[in-house]
Design goal:
By secondary structure, the protein is an alpha/beta fold. The chain folds into three domains: 178 residues, Rossmann fold, CATH 3.40.50; 115 residues, Cytidine Deaminase, domain 2 (3-Layer(aba) Sandwich); 121 residues, Cytidine Deaminase, domain 2 (3-Layer(aba) Sandwich). 37% of the residues lie in helices and 20% in strands. It contains 17 helices and 21 strands. Strands 8-13-12-11-9-10 form a six-stranded mixed β-sheet, sandwiched between helices. Helix 10 packs parallel to helix 12, helix 15 runs parallel beside helix 16 and helix 16 runs parallel beside helix 17. The radius of gyration is 30 Å and the shape is elongated. The chain starts with a strand and ends in an 8-residue tail after the last strand. The relative contact order is 0.06.
C-alpha cells in the first residue's frame, strides 16, 4: 500500500514514517518532507518520480497531478475507477499524511497552501478507502491500529476525515480574515462575513446550571490566554466560573498599574479597590460588600503574597481566585483553608476579537468593550473641579461603572468602591442600592453612572450619598438643569462624552 507524506509540521514525522515502512508501506514524499526523511535514512519515492514532472513555480506545483490525485480519489468499489487506474498505470494511495503551512502565524501570499488542502480534501472525500492524517498527535494511534488490523477501520477513517475538513476550513477562514484586514474597508467596518468555527478547548464541570452541559471553545486554530491558565487547586471549573473569572480578570487588568483587587459576583463587581499594597487592596475590596463577596470571584493584579493570603483566608470563601502568580506559602495557606476554591494562575487577558452574542434566530456582533474617551477629553462642566484625590476616585468609579451591568451606579471613596448598584431597570433604583450599600462611606468621594442622568433626581441621590464628584456621559436634554443642580449642591460634575452600557 502506498502512503503520501507532505507536511509542514514535521513533529514526529521520522518515527511515524519508519513505523509505516516497517509495516510494509511504500512512502511517497515531496519537497522538504522528502529531504527530512532522506536525511534520517528513511527510504521514500520522490513525488516527481511518480508524476514524471518536476516541481515547478518555486514549489507551487508538485502534487497537482493525475498520478497523485487519481491514486487518492479512486473509488475502489467502482470497476470503472479501478480500470482507469490500470489504464493510466496509477497506483492507489491508501494514506495521506499532510498538514498545511502555518498561515495564522505568518500570513502572506506564499503561505497560502494550494496542493496541501487539495490533497487533504481529496483524501477526506474518499475516506471510505483512504486514511488522512493532519495532526501529528494522531501518529501513534494510527500506527497502532495499522499494526493490529492491517488497515484503518471505517470509524477511524471517518473521524480522521472530519478532522481533515476542520483543518482546511480553519485554514481558509484564517486567509479570509487576513484578506479582510487588508481589504481597504473604512476604519472600524465589520466584515461582510464572519467565520464562527470553534474547537472545544476545555470540558467544564457543568453549564450555567448543573443539569446543563458546558464547555469552553476557542476560535479554530487560535491560542487563547485561557489556554495558558494553570489551576493549582479546587473543584473542576464550571461555565459560570469562567464567565465570571473573565469579567474579574479584565476589570482588575483595567485598574492597574497600582496594586488592585476586584471581586465579582454574577459578572458584576461587588468590591474593588486600589492601594499601596495588595493586602490592603484586598481588604478594602472585600469590605465594600462582605455579604455579596461570599462565593465570588477574586481577581488580583499582583502575585498573591503571604500577607495577602492571610487576609484572604480570614474572609469569606471565594469560588475562584485568579492572579498572575502565588508564593508557595500563600498557595499552601489558601489550599489548607479553602480546599474547594479554584486557584487560577493566568497571563494578562487579551480581548481583541469581535464580540459575538447569540440571540434567537441570529447573532449580534460588535467591537470589544473599551473606553474610547481619555481623561484629556473629559469636561468639567461645573464651577467646582475635582481635587487631585477626587480625580483618582472619579477615574476608578468610571472604570467600575463600565464593567458593571446596566443600569449601573458606582460610589468610590479613598480608592475603594463603597457602593455598587447593578443591573437595574431604573437608574434611580441603581443609585439607591449603591447608596444603601455605601452606608455613609461615600462622603467626599465620586459617583459614576454608565449613561446620562435624564433628570436631576439621580444627581440629588448621589449628593445625598455624600459624593463630591459625579461623572457621567452627558448628552441629556436636561444637562443644563443637572449642571445647575450640581452647582447648587456644591459638587463637581464631569462629562466623559461616551456611554458605557454593558448588558
Amino acid at each position: 500500500m502506498r502512503a503520501l507524506l507532505s507536511v509542514y509540521d514535521k513533529t514526529g514525522l521520522v518515527e511515524f514514517a519508519r513505523g509505516l515502512s516497517r509495516l510494509g508501506w511504500e512512502l511517497v514524499s515531496s519537497g522538504g518532507t522528502a529531504a527530512a526523511l532522506g536525511a534520517a535514512g528513511v527510504a521514500c519515492t520522490p513525488v516527481e518520480a511518480v508524476t514524471g514532472s518536476p516541481e515547478m513555480l518555486g514549489g507551487r506545483v508538485k502534487t497537482l497531478h493525475p498520478a497523485i490525485h487519481g491514486g487518492i480519489l479512486a473509488d475502489r468499489d467502482r470497476p470503472e475507477h479501478v480500470a482507469d487506474l490500470l489504464a493510466q498505470n496509477i497506483a492507489a494511495i491508501g494514506l495521506v499524511v499532510c498538514n498545511l503551512y502555518p498561515f495564522q502565524s505568518d500570513p502572506s501570499i506564499e503561505m497560502i497552501d494550494i496542493g496541501g488542502p487539495t490533497m487533504v480534501r481529496a483524501a477526506a472525500k474518499n475516506h471510505a478507502h483512504v486514511g488522512v492524517v493532519v495532526d501529528p498527535g494522531e501518529y501513534p494511534a494510527v500506527l497502532e491500529e495499522l499494526a493490529r488490523e492491517g488497515l484503518l477501520g471505517p470509524e477511524t477513517r471517518r473521524r480522521l476525515a472530519r478532522a481533515a475538513f476542520v483543518h482546511t476550513a480553519g485554514y481558509d477562514a484564517a486567509i479570509v480574515s487576513w484578506l479582510d484586514k487588508g481589504s481597504g474597508d473604512s476604519a472600524g467596518a465589520l466584515p461582510s462575513t464572519l467565520d464562527l468555527r470553534l474547537d472545544r478547548a476545555q470540558d467544564l464541570r457543568y453549564g450555567e446550571n448543573p443539569h446543563q452541559q458546558g464547555a469552553r471553545y476557542r476560535r479554530l486554530g487560535t491560542h487563547s490566554w485561557w489556554d495558558d491558565v494553570v489551576q493549582h487547586a479546587g473543584l473542576p471549573l464550571s461555565y459560570l466560573n469562567l464567565f465570571d473569572a473573565a469579567a474579574a480578570w479584565q476589570l482588575v487588568d483595567e485598574l492597574g498599574p497600582q496594586p488592585a483587587v476586584a471581586i465579582i459576583k454574577h459578572a458584576n463587581p461587588c468590591g474593588a479597590a486600589v492601594a499601596g499594597d495588595l493586602a490592603t487592596a484586598y481588604r478594602l475590596a472585600y469590605e465594600c460588600d462582605e455579604k455579596s463577596a461570599f462565593g465570588g470571584i477574586v481577581a488580583l493584579n499582583r502575585p498573591v503574597d503571604d500577607e495577602t493570603a492571610a487576609v484572604m483566608v480570614a474572609a469569606a470563601q471565594a469560588d475562584v481566585v485568579i492572579a498572575p502568580g502565588y508564593s508557595s506559602d500563600s498557595l499552601d495557606a489558601l489550599i489548607a483553608k479553602r480546599k474547594n476554591t479554584r486557584l487560577l494562575q493566568a497571563p494578562p487577558p487579551v480581548d481583541t476579537a469581535l464580540h459575538v452574542r447569540q440571540i434567537s434566530g441570529g447573532f449580534l456582533v460588535q467591537e470589544p468593550y473599551r473606553f474610547a474617551a481619555s481623561r484629556a477629553e473629559w469636561r468639567v462642566v461645573t464651577r467646582l473641579a475635582p481635587t487631585d484625590e477626587q480625580w483618582a476616585d472619579t477615574e476608578l468609579a468610571w472604570k467600575l461603572a463600565g464593567y458593571t451591568k446596566s443600569n449601573a451606579v458606582v460610589l468610590v471613596a479613598g480608592g475603594q468602591a463603597v457602593g455598587i448598584g447593578a443591573g437595574q431597570q431604573s437608574r434611580v433604583d441603581a443609585g439607591e442600592i449603591a447608596a444603601r450599600k455605601a452606608a455613609g462611606r461615600a462622603k467626599g468621594g465620586a459617583c459614576a453612572t454608565d449613561a446620562f442622568y435624564p433628570f436631576r433626581d439621580g444627581l440629588d441621590a448621589a449628593a445625598s450619598a455624600g459624593a463630591s464628584v459625579v461623572i457621567q456621559p452627558g448628552g441629556a436634554m436636561r444637562d443644563q438643569e443637572l449642571i445647575d443642580a450640581a452647582d447648587e449642591q456644591g459638587i463637581a460634575m464631569v462629562f466623559t462624552g461616551e456611554r458605557q452600557f454593558r448588558h
